[in-house]
Every structure is written in C-alpha cells, then in structure tokens.
Amino acid sequence: QKMSYGSIDGSGFGSRNPFGGPSRQGYQPLATQIDPSELQELFQETSANVFRINSNVTSLERSLRSLGTSNDTQELQDGLHATQQETNKTITTSTKAIKQLSEVVRGSSRVCQERLQLDRLKNQLSDAIQRYGAVQKKIAEKSKALLPTGQRSTKQVS
User: Fold this and answer.
1) Which residues, other chains included, contact 47 with Cβ-Cβ below 8 Å and sequence gap of 6+?
2) CA distance 46 to 120
3) % the chain with pLDDT above 70
4) Which residue, among 91, 1, 108, has the nearest Cα to 53 in the 3D structure?
5) Which pTM value belongs to this model?
6) Which residues belong to any copy of the Syntaxin N-terminal domain (predicted)?
7) Within its chain, how far is the Cα of 24 from the centroid?
C-alpha cells in the first residue's frame, strides 16, 4: 500500500492549542505553547522511530535473502510479518508526530534551527518510508513466486 507524503506538512492540524496549556500573553494562541523540552523530546522520539524503521528495513532485507532457501522457516515468516506490522505502526506514529511538530514549528517565533531540524527529520522519515516500501514490494514478489504453481492464481481443487 502506498502512503501519501503530502499530509506530512501538518496542514490537517487545527489552529487551537492541542496541548491544552494556556496561551501565554504576547504569543499567538496557536499550537506554539509547547514546552521547549517537550518539543525536543518529540524530535528525539521521532528521530528514534526513523532509526527503528531503518533497522527494521535492514532486518527485512536479511530475511528476504533467506526466503526460498533452507533457512526459510515458519519462524522466519512469523518474524517477517511481526517486523512489518511493527514498522507500519512506527510509520503511523512518526507521521503524526511530524504533523504535530510542523504545526508547532510553523507557528513558532523561535529560531530557524528547529525548522532545519524538522526538515531534516521529514526527509529522513520520507527516505525510510521509501526504503521500507521497496523492501516490502520485493518480499511480496518473492513470496508470491515461491508459492506452488497451483496456488498462485486459482485455488487448486483437491
């Protein structure tokens, strides 16, 4: 399944403060009233998620090489499936976090450093998602090719 990257810019976020804190005087009452340490935490968490996605891709690539060999076990299949599910969840979480960060940084009067940090993170996430999509496609193709001939298109009648 293909994910759309257009939604990463945070445009779907409301302009009210989603963090529940009171808006301080002299600031726009946007989603900017997030504690700087909370903001950095969100950056670090998302960065760690991007790392996790890339690690999972590396692990999936290793498993892919074992498909159809003597190392192709039920355990390998289960591991592949579990890793794919975990990666899907991590991608969803990371995409939401990027939206949240975009909203905060966009409405912020703070330094451009955070904008640069956000852009870098967006690019890293986007690259990781593309790598994941590519390996997923290869796994699906190889798994399909390994099915006994009768099971590929039509169910075999016993």
Assistant:
1) 121, 124
2) 12
3) 70
4) 91
5) 0.71
6) 31-144
7) 33
